[in-house]
Structures are given as C-alpha cells and as structure tokens.
Write a structure and sequence with these properties.
167 residues; mainly alpha; two-stranded antiparallel sheet; 2 strands; elongated
Length: 167
C-alpha cells in the first residue's frame, strides 16, 4: 500500500528561530572577515591539519583558508533552501495531520541550530589555523576535537529526544 505524502505546511519561524538564523549568518560574516584579513596578512604556508592532540601535522598554501568559509557558505545556503521544504524530510516518527506542525517546527529549528553549529565549527577551525599561522597560538589543543563532536551531536540528540516525546 502506498503511503500518503507528508502534508505541505508553511512553518512560521518563532522568535528563537529568527535569532538562531541571524546568529548563524553573523558567525559566517565574522568567519569571512577573519579569513579575508588573514589572507591579506599571513604569508607562506598555513596549518591545514591538526592531530587529535591539536598539534599541526600538515601544512598547505594560504589559499586553503578560503575553502573553509567557502564550503561553509555553500552548506548554510543549501540548508536554508532545504528548510523551506520540511514535508520532504525524513522523520524518526510517522507524520500525521495532527503532529505535522509540531514535527516540522522542531525539524526546521534543528536545521537552523545545525547551520549555527556548522558556522561555529568552521569559525573555530579557521581561527585555529590563522592563530597558529600568525604565531598567536602554538596549537588549538586537545579540546578542539571533543568540542566539535559535542557541537555536532548534542543538538542532534536533543532533537531526536524531543521528536520521540512529541509523537
């Protein structure tokens, strides 16, 4: 038996959603500003890879630092576009006429939080690269990898938990 498609609804963002959305783009703006400054200031190779302990174990050209905000911009733009179509998302619960509004609102907020998380992670990564290249910092330290893991997986775990509770 063919399943009916999820209902198409327009989800009006709440105030918190608007704040999260703006914060993500503001962080991206800071990322680009920092990158442009570094691109015009730093000469020579920059660190392009850090090991688990936060020590540099790979170098590349200064052009590498432009890739981070470039890819981040593409990801944020893609997620923004996708967020207009919550009816096509995969959900951990069955979508019904009764729960669609709530599930769509939670999913679109999760994607906004994901965008903010991606922007923050990219900012931290480029900040680590730039501060190491300029000699301001020797290495980002052990904390970088666990922090990135927490920033990525904590919102996902919270979303899944809320989604199952709000069946």
């Amino acid at each position: 038996m063919k399943e009916l498609p999820n209902p198409k609804l327009i989800i009006k963002p709440a105030r918190a959603d608007c704040v999260i959305e703006v914060l993500g783009w503001v962080v991206l703006g800071f990322l680009w500003s920092m990158t442009i400054w570094a691109f015009t200031t730093v000469s020579g190779d920059v660190p392009v890879h850090f090991n688990f302990r936060g020590e540099v174990d790979g170098y590349g050209s200064i052009g590498f630092i432009v890739w981070v905000p470039g890819l981040t911009t593409l990801m944020l733009a893609g997620i923004t576009w996708l967020n207009h179509y919550p009816h096509i998302f995969n959900y951990p619960v069955k979508i019904t006429a009764q729960n669609a509004q709530k599930q769509y609102a939670m999913a679109t907020r999760f994607l906004r939080i994901l965008k903010l998380s991606i922007a923050v992670i990219s900012f931290i990564i480029n900040l680590s690269i730039i501060t190491t290249a300029t000699g301001i910092s020797v290495k980002p330290g052990f904390w970088l990898t666990p922090l990135i893991i927490i920033i990525v997986f904590l919102p996902f775990a919270i979303y899944l938990s809320k989604s199952f509770r709000q069946k």
